[in-house]
């Protein structure tokens, strides 16, 4: 077989066939690499897997304008021509080749060979968006649980998983010889779960580090499967960080991940809390990076994007809180911590947060007054819209103190608006509002006009009630002031009465001394004094 005896033996011919025939053809490279799954140790030792992977990577990174064939993943009836075959009679000559033409062909490979191909493609310098798209395509094909809610949905998942494990069927691969696995249905499902866990761990390790290489929805669905299949905690944490990098792109449906760890709540609220923490850390890092602070224009643009991202995340969190608040097992502390995780500047309007609070109060009617006040502290009454204020003023589930705060905040808004605008501005705005209202009323149907008049009457009645409450509040303040004055007067009278009794005693002593001094002028007074002295002496003697 070697060249020791004669030139052109089997090894030379096999090497020439591999180099000039197999590696020069896209389809043959895919087929040979797929065939190496049955010969894992020998194919690795002979460098066939490495050479096929590099050949596929080089062809995938080449200019797609030179590609003139039907793709192998779409089951062409005839074998595809070689890589450099560009005949004029090709039916796809005038068709533009999409950049993802190689996704389907690469997705038929086993996970370890796919990882080798993607690693070689990344080394060649392909755009990270295409690399991420190919990973998403592969995961969608081999992980049916990404689309459905179950990770192993029956026969289809079984076929996909078993074909990925080995093309010979029912065999496991670990880089060595294959062993046929036979057993019960439970053993098969556990084997499928193990293989899917391996696929998830491999895909997470090759996702490009760039922010938008894969979608946030894909990352969340992959995270759900990783938690359900009990993937390694380090990879789960890595996925959580990746989701936090682009958390503003998430949707409510993707965030509603069930609690697989047999927790008290229906949904995994702690997971969303961790994702939100990763997002806040990422935004803080981006805002404080020196690259943003070096150029003022870029810094302003970056800050605007950060504020927009925080606003989108705030709306997403409010919607999530509204959804999970219906769970009776959700504790008040978890709700409050998740609601207060974002800074106050993230929310310009607290209507969504008020909706979540109202939903939580509906689902938890046994809350005490203190707990309801504690729940409402997460909401800023000054950030509520007019519709939310009207609803909150009539909401019996809210504490009375919160209702008063809502009414007071609305009154402050009205007074500030009136104080900031001058008389001319008010007249011009009122004139413009009247003209706009006339045009709107002319163009709207009768039902809308009747609804508008009814709403206007309600607003006027609420304003009248607000004025009456304000007048009663002023009356109560006046009564309080009058009561305070009366109370102060009573205190003064008590102090003056004690002092006046003391002064009366002192005045009596003063009068007696004055009489003693004038005893020469009045002998009668002297006699009376002598009698008083005698009586006092007798009284003293009797006591002694």
From TrEMBL:
Q: Locate the region Disordered.
A: 518-544
UniProt xrefs under InterPro entries: NPH3/RPT2-like, NPH3_dom
Keywords, comma-separated and alphabetical: Coiled coil, Ubl conjugation pathway
Which Pfam families did the record assign? NPH3
Q: What biological process terms from GO does the record include?
A: protein ubiquitination
- Positions of the NPH3 domain: 100-413
Query: Biased composition, Basic residues: where in the chain?
Result: 534-544
Q: Which residues form a coiled coil?
A: 459-493
So what family is this one in?
Belongs to the NPH3 family.
Protein name, UniProt field: Root phototropism protein 3 isoform B
Question: What's the source species for this entry?
Answer: Glycine soja
